[in-house]
Amino acid sequence: GRTYHHAPTRRERHRGHHNALAQSRGRRGRAG
């Protein structure tokens, strides 16, 4: 399995940011 993916790394922060962006896109209709 990909344990590193779940590990608390710098990518995790990036993923969180991307998640928020995706949600905003749906509500605002634009890529933030």
Automatic annotation (TrEMBL):
Keywords: Acyltransferase, Pyruvate, Transferase. This is Dihydrolipoamide acetyltransferase component of pyruvate dehydrogenase complex. Residues 1-32 are annotated as: Disordered. Coiled coil: none annotated. It comes from uncultured Rubrobacteraceae bacterium. The lineage of its organism: Bacteria, Bacillati, Actinomycetota, Rubrobacteria, Rubrobacterales. Residues 1-18 have a biased composition (Basic residues). Its EC number is 2.3.1.12. One of its GO terms (molecular function) is dihydrolipoyllysine-residue acetyltransferase activity.
